[in-house]
Structures are given as C-alpha cells and as structure tokens.
Amino acid sequence: MDRGTIGAIRITPLAFADPPLLNAAGVHEPHVLRALVEIDVADGRGGTVTGLGECAGHAWQLDWLTLIAPRLLGTSVFDVHRLADRVDACLTGADVDTAPDAAWRRWSDRSPEASLGIAPIPAPAFDRRRVHAPLEVACHDAAGRLLGVRVVDLLGGARRESVEYAGYLFYKLAGHPDADGAVTPDAWGEALDAEGIVAQAEALVAAHGFASLKLKGGVFAPEVEVATIHALRRRFPAMPLRLDPNAAWSVPTAVAAAAQLLGVVEYLEDPVAGLEPMAEVARATGIPLATNMCVVLTEHLAPALRLGSVSIVLGDHHYWGVLRGTLALDTACHALGFGLSMHSNSHLGVSLAAMTHVCAASHVDHAADTHYPWNAADDIVAPGTLALVDGAVRLPDGPGLGVELDRAVVERLHRAYLDLGREHRQDERYAEALGVTSVTGPLPRW
Ligand SMILES: O=C([O-])C(=O)C[C@H](O)[C@@H](O)C(=O)[O-]
Ligand SMILES: [Mg+2]
C-alpha cells in the first residue's frame, strides 16, 4: 500500500474517573465517557504507523464514527479534504441509507436518552465537526509520524514552544456517594464556598504553577460567585481571573454582576445566552465578554462583530473544524480583532496534546482552558511526554502529536466503559439523584 493509505480504524470507548464537579447543568458523574480513535496507516515499506485521536464518547458520536470508519479505508492521511468530504457525505445523508428501517436508526430508538444530543440526518455542521475531529487529529498524528515532523509543523510551524493553560476551578461536592449513599471525601475535598475555592486554587497552583484561573459558575447565586472571585483576587492579586456561568443569568442579573467584576476579571464568559443578549450586557457594562456558547460556527463571527457581543472567542478543535478549522478561526479572530482563548471539556492526554499543538501554531492570547488536572490520574498517554508545569505544556519532541499510549490504561478504561453500561452524559439527572436540585431546571436561573 502507498505511504499514507488508511488500512484500519479502531474506535475504543473509554470511561475514566471524574470528581463530583458542579456546573449550571448539574453534577459531573463518577465517570466521563470518552473515545480513543486509532488509525493504522501504511508507511510505504510494508509496515504501519498508528495515529491517535480522542473525542467525547456519547453513543451517537461513537455510532457515527463506527458507520463512517469503513468508508475512509483506502483514503490517504495526506488527503484531509477528501476525508472531511466523506464524513460530511455520510452525516448529511448523501452517502448513507436514509430508509426508515436503515440499520443506523436503531440508535435513536435505543433509549429515551438517546435522543439527547443526537444529530439526525442531515446532521448540523456543529455535530459533523464533532464526529470528524478525532479522525482528522489521528490523520495529522499519523502524517507527522510518517514524515518525522511534529503536528505543529504540519500546521505551519510553532509560534511558541510552550502553551499556557488556566487552572479550572469548580465548586464541588466532597466525593461521590457509594452504593449505600456513604461519601468518602476525595483527595480534592469539598469546595462549596469562597474559602473552598481559594483552597482548591492554592492546590492547583501549587501542583501545576497555573498563572491564570477560571471559575466555573452558574452554580450559586451570582453574589456568591462574585464574592468568590473577589476572594480569589485577594489571595492572588496579580492573577488573571475569569468566571463562566454558562448562561445561567438573565441580562439584568448579568449587568448587575458585571458591575462588581469590571476590572477584576480578565473576562466574563457566557453570562447570558445568545448573541443579542450578550451584546446588551457588553454595551451596558463595558466588561470584556468571552464565549464558547454563542459563537461556535464561522457564520456566528460576523453577527458577533456587528453586534459587539464578545471580545474573546473560545476555540476548541473538537468542534471548530478540527486543527485546520481552529487555525482558520485563529486567522479570522486575528483579522477581526477578537481575542482567542480555548474551551475544554473533560479529556485525556491525546486531546491535551492536540490542543497544545494547535494552540502553539495559533495567535491564542489567553491561557487555554483544560480539565486535565481533574482526570490526569487516568491518562491513557504514557508518562514522560506531556506535563503541566509552570502553568504550561511544552510541545512534545516526537513526531506527530508526540505521545504514546499506555495500553494497560486503555484496556482498564475500556473495561470500565463496558462495565458501566451508560451511554450519555447526564449531569442533570445525576444532580437530581443526589438531591442537588439547585443546579437543575431551565436557564436562566437567576
Ligand atoms: O467553558 C465551558 O463552558 C465548559 O467548560 C463546559 C463544560 O461542560 C464544563 O461546564 C464542565 O465540565 O462542567
Ligand atoms: Mg464556557
């Protein structure tokens, strides 16, 4: 087979441990569902190299990947446009059996929850990109390994050798209850007030040297969260701080809270939902606003600019058109005068490596979000190549993403997935089961 030809694609669902972190949608469950994508590629000398990708492990996303994988065999990892077109053809219905009894339709019937977040045909662009992401990352990894160059060099070269990340603070419960409802506090302990969050920040800064901090809000009344930010400011006088209530506030609430945060936070992220309401808050307060909720597609940039909805856009290669798409966003933000930061969700080291390469190639001008410290103990990446030190991750030296798998951990997390028997993320349902109903129900909550 020619060098670069895709010979096999493996999709391995994983479940890894997660603490009971609170957000506007509920409480993180004991396990995060994730998927590892491995693409075996001919090296042109009779051998193969394997490229790695990682994405969320929702049932609909896994099933789409499974449906698409055979359609990509025989294409080349250097032919990323063709690969993207094939993914699109499948997800828009041009290359899939759309009959009412087509086999893929079993997914939507599997359980009532399966309809949550499912992308029906034609799948919206946002969901098409979420399916495409781990495939393109794995192709870049394989291409880099074949050529002996880093992914960042395939993306045009490194603008920096080290990428800064923000410490991601969460209000959290002491621990997950066991089968009898008994709670043994985890190593992080409880953080349900300003004091707990400051202690959590001290621990994260001591462990990883973070020089920026982000607080996940939308959990308590805005005055409590504003007071928490002020407590962080007193403890870390020079640290850039941000608060993200995930649209849990109404416009008047956000305007009042922003008055207390102006000059204290580097930005306020998604206090309200939608481009127009965000613009209202920005106009009324002058506070820098950031988003990973109201600007998630290229076509949102023009109205965001016209309305003045945000100053900073959060990219994320898992849905912004993968690595090349994230760099296109970077180019647009740079030209239009938006700042660029990066969104994250619970993830492992393959995604951290991909994020580090794409950030290194970009003009990102705010420390990127990462959930990594919360989940690093279960990382599938073998130790030694990725480390969060001095608030940053250095680009690994090796070709491609520069990381290798720890097969024993992959196997353990795959078994955990099979044992779990869960197919969706259900923060709200878990919060209800725990009786933490203050974080359930429709938004805005304040
Ligand atoms: O910036 C954000 O909106 C996020 O990080 C979204 C995540 O789902 C976060 O809220 C979480 O992990 O609970
Ligand atoms: Mg956000």
Automatic annotation (TrEMBL):
Pfam families reported in the protein's UniProt record: MR_MLE_C (PF13378)
Catalytic activity: D-glucarate = 5-dehydro-4-deoxy-D-glucarate + H2O
Pathway: Carbohydrate acid metabolism; D-glucarate degradation; 2,5-dioxopentanoate from D-glucarate: step 1/2
E.C. numbers: 4.2.1.40
Start and end residues of each Mandelate racemase/muconate lactonizing enzyme C-terminal domain: 194-288
Enzyme type, top EC level: lyase
UniProt cross-references to SMART domains, sorted A to Z: MR_MLE
InterPro entries, alphabetized: DgoD-like, Enolase-like_C_sf, Enolase-like_N, Enolase_C-like, Mandelate_racemase_C
Name by which UniProt lists this protein: glucarate dehydratase
Lineage, broadest ranks: Bacteria, Bacillati, Actinomycetota, Actinomycetes, Propionibacteriales
